[in-house]
Every structure is written in structure tokens, then in C-alpha cells.
Amino acid sequence: MPNFSHIPIIEVSNHHAAAERIGEACRESGFFYAVGHGIPEELQRRLHDLSREFFALPIEEKMRIPMAAAGRAWRGYFRVGDELTSGLPDQKEGLYFGEELPSDHPLVVAGTPLHGANLFPEHPAGLRDAVLEYMEAMKHLGHRLMAGVALSLGLKEDYFAEEFTREPLSLFRIFNYPPPRDPTLWGVGEHTDYGLLTILMQDDAGGLEVKSQSRWVAAPPVPNSFVCNIGDMLDRMTQGLYRSTPHRVRNPLPRNRLSFPFFFDPNFFAQVRPIALPKGLAKPDDHAERWDKASVRLFQGTYGEYLLGKVGKVFPQLKREVIGS
Ligand code: OGA
Ligand code: NI
């Protein structure tokens, strides 16, 4: 496990110019802040304010769009404690979104898990448009950042788009972390992310921590930045050269903390396989020291298969209700 003491801030407006620093960050901590990203502050603020309004609603109102109602599309609202990221109930509630697909889309007709229509709340009315606009903007940013990642690996800038993300699996979540009631529980427990790249907007509360070899390193709020981090798939594809680093959150404040992670992942049907790296760059397998003792590098199959194994574990109750196992 690498030892690092800070998370770099990288200006990403030109992905060619940013590639080298992105590569360094991915090898050291697997985390960096992106600034100069071009996402309008007005959109960020609007999404933030509308989300705050939603979470302030009574629980009965929020439970009008429960995740169980979306079935295998895995969309909608879940309550504090419903998700068990690392085996214990997370102290957060949230909304789960994905690409908005009509009911007659072939993948929806075929019953493909994680594909379908979103469940949007009736109130506040503007949340639907803000979410859809934000996801579109994040998808573009994801492509640009992954072009930088490709260049940093000595690959063509459209490598990921050609091989894995022409049609990425985009998952978007909005979390509300209430002030902690039980100091032994985490907002979200220690975990790594599943896909290629996570792009996180966090409010000004703080509380995100990233695991370095000797200690936990804080990833405090940086105005108008996104916290970007590598997921398991990119770790696997680069044979551990680019790190999917464990992280966790505890809201440090006596008020709500909001965060907005966007997951830019390989296509559901993409076969996960290693990228040919320049000689000498690949690292030995690290599964003995991983938080879940599992090696992502031992996995064979599609990204969809990998992801379904994960979502079933973190929402066991929902899995029983929806899939009946
Ligand atoms: C995640 C995550 C951090 C946060 O959703 O994978 O690590 O601040 N979120 O909510
Ligand atoms: Ni995460």
C-alpha cells in the first residue's frame, strides 16, 4: 500500500496538459481534485439546493419513491441505514439515479439490471431537470478525464472510449449524511469504488478520508472542485499501477452533509481485461492487504456481472425483495 500525505489539486481544462499530473496522482494515492473542469457553478448550486430541499421533506414523502419500486433498475430513495457498504449500516440516506431509458428501450424490455427509468420526486419539481443536466455534464467530464488517464498510460486519448466507455454505465447518487448519532458508525464505511472513475462533488462540511499506508488522509472541501478517484476496474485493468484506494466518510458537523458521487464506469457488457502496460510498470497482486481481502484482478467477466455482485451485497434487503434470493 502506498504512503502519501496529500491529495493534489489538478487543473484539468486541457487534458493533454493535465495527463502527467493525473498519472502521478493515480499511481500515488488514486485520488486528485479536479479544478478548471468547466462545470457551471450555477448548475452545481442548483442541484445542491434542490437536493437539500428534498432531504428536508418528511420521510413519508421521500418514501413515495423507494428503491424497491424501481425493481432491478436500482433507482430511487433509500433511508438512513438501508445501505451496508462495508457490512454495517451507513449513516446516510440517498437517491440513486442512472441513465434515463424509456420503457421500450431494448435493454429495458430485456430486463437488463441497472437499466431503466429514474424515479424522480414530485417535490422539489426542479430536481429532475437538474439531475439530468448534471449527469450529462458529468458524462462529458468523465470522457475528458479518462482521455487524460489514457494519455498518462501512453495510450491514445480515445482508448477507453473505443474499448469500454463508448456508452459508459453512468451511475449517479445524491447522499445526505445527517449529524452522527452513534459515533461508532460511519457515514459510509471503508470501501473502494467499483468502476473506472468516480467524480464527487461534496459540500463544505468535510469528513472524507483516504487511506494511506500509515494513516488516514483528509480530503477536505476545495471550492469549485471535484474529488476524482480510481475504481476497482481501472486498478484491475492497470494491474495495480493505478490504485483504487479505500476511503470513508463521517460527517463532522451537527448539520447535514451532502455529497454527489458520479460513477463513470465501463459499459455493462464490456469484458473486463488488462491493458497492455509498458514493461516493468505492473505491480504484484495486493489482495492479501485489501479491505475486503478480494482481488479484483482475479475477476473474469463483464463489468455488469462484477457490479451486480457488489450491489447485491450492499443492499441485501432490497436484493431479497427485488430478486428474491
Ligand atoms: C462513494 C463515496 C463519498 C462521499 O459513494 O463511493 O465514497 O463523500 N462517497 O459521499
Ligand atoms: Ni467511494
Helix/strand layout:
Layout: E1 9-11, H1 15-28, E2 31-35, H2 41-55, H3 59-62, E3 76-78, E4 93-98, H4 106-109, H5 127-152, H6 159-165, E5 169-177, E6 188-191, E7 197-202, E8 208-211, E9 216-218, E10 226-230, H7 232-237, E11 247-249, E12 257-265, H8 303-314, H9 316-323
Parallel strand pairs: 1-2
Antiparallel strand pairs: 2-10, 3-4, 4-5, 5-12, 6-11, 7-10, 7-12, 8-9, 8-11
Helix pairs in contact: 1-5, 2-5, 5-6
This protein binds N-oxalylglycine (OGA) and nickel (II) ion.
Nickel (II) ion binds at residues 191, 193, 198, 247.
Keywords:
9 helices, 325 residues, eight-stranded mixed sheet, alpha+beta, 30% helix, four-stranded antiparallel sheet, binds nickel (II) ion, binds N-oxalylglycine
Structure write-up:
- By secondary structure, this protein is α+β, with helices and mostly antiparallel strands.
- It is 30% helix and 18% strand.
- The chain has nine helices and twelve strands.
- It has helices at residues 15-28, 41-55, 59-62, 106-109, 127-152, 159-165, 232-237, 303-314, 316-323, and strands at residues 9-11, 31-35, 76-78, 93-98, 169-177, 188-191, 197-202, 208-211, 216-218, 226-230, 247-249, 257-265.
- The strands form two sheets. It has an eight-stranded mixed beta sheet with strand order 1-2-10-7-12-5-4-3. Strands 6-11-8-9 form a four-stranded antiparallel beta sheet, with no helix packed on it.
- Helix 1 packs across helix 5 (127-152).
- The mean pLDDT is 92.
- N-oxalylglycine (OGA) is lined by residues 175, 188, 193, 200, 202, 208, 247, 249, 259, 261.
- Nickel (II) ion (NI) is lined by residues 191, 193, 198, 247.
